[in-house]
Give the backbone structure.
Amino acid sequence: WWNHVGHAPKDPIMSVTEAFLSDTSPNKINLGVGAYRDDDGRPVVLQCVRDGEAKIAGTGFLESVSASVSSKLVEESVKLIYGKDADFIKEGRFAGVQALSGTGACRLFAEFQRRFYPQSKIYLPIPTWSNHHNIWRDAQVPGRTFHYYHPDSKGLHFAALMDDIKNAPDRSFFLLHPCAHNPTGVDPTEEQWRDISNLFKVKNHFPFFDMAYQGFASGDLDKDAKAMRIFLEDGHLIGCAQSFAKNMGLYGHRVGCLSVLCADAKQAVAIKSQLQHITRAMYSSPPVHGILLVSTILSDPHLKELWKKELKVMANRIHRMRSTLRESLKKLGSPLNWDHMTNQVGMFCFSGLSPDQVNRLMKEFHIYMTYDGRMSMAGVTTSNVSYLANAIHEVTKF
Ligand code: LMR
């Protein structure tokens, strides 16, 4: 038995964490995984989470997720992206289920896609979060790519993106990042989202949004949902994977939501039953604690306000670190233009560093990031930013 089983390929993101953990240098910096850290480099438990936990303590929630807890989570999650007054919510024109964070929601949707559109493919931006490729591949949905990022401008390759959307066969499935694109930190402008949405209408494409970082781009939940609201206004049926890992700091709790907008309530009932049918065979139901916690925070006005404030604090700290790093490189006399550090948004900076330079940062300076040059800005702090700037300058000066 098992002699034929070789080692699986290393995950490009998780392997960075492993390498970082095994480094004993006191100077080491982890800019790998997208997980928020405070200015002392420590993981954060938000006060709204502590207060929410106190509120649910002792409520006897050890049974698996009940229908009422589940629908509360789904309804509050959907309001968060589309706004609380969206008509389709009142009309019950959506199917939603709680999911194992964003990854679980994507995986469920990929499975659903294969079952009901077995010939379809998924169009993924180049680049995208590396796990998107794995998720749709494992669900046996062939992947295709579309242009997104321009390495020269370190911004959006809008013309090529529009061409690819136009040239894809009508009624294709596209995965879009509504804000804080991972790994590039490059988002379309509002105007560009409107053009994309219009073209999707013409082509009858299906937009599937992976909303993993709501609040991290602008610090404001509504602003970060603008793209989705444009698509909603334009009358699209939309799929969305939502994660509360980053914006509530609940990484290990695996709380998320998958929602699919439908033409009418009857369709919604059928689709929800199919999604439940898929989860039942995969893992029956997710752990209840995190779901209860998130639905409690989202439905308690005081906790929700507190959450919004704390989210802003996280987003602002990352923003400050972007400017500080850029300024530090300038002061060091870097011959390169680092404006993209502050033009890009969200948790990541797609630095433009080459794999060789990334390797040197790791070997010579104990600074860890993925080989595509993506830096998780959450790992940058007031006390390590000048060490980091010096190191980047060392490996990039001619
Ligand atoms: C990341 O891109 O670093 C995060 O989404 C964490 C993960 O699971 O990859």
The chain has a mean pLDDT of 95. The longest strand covers residues 94-100. The two ends are 54 Å apart (CA to CA).
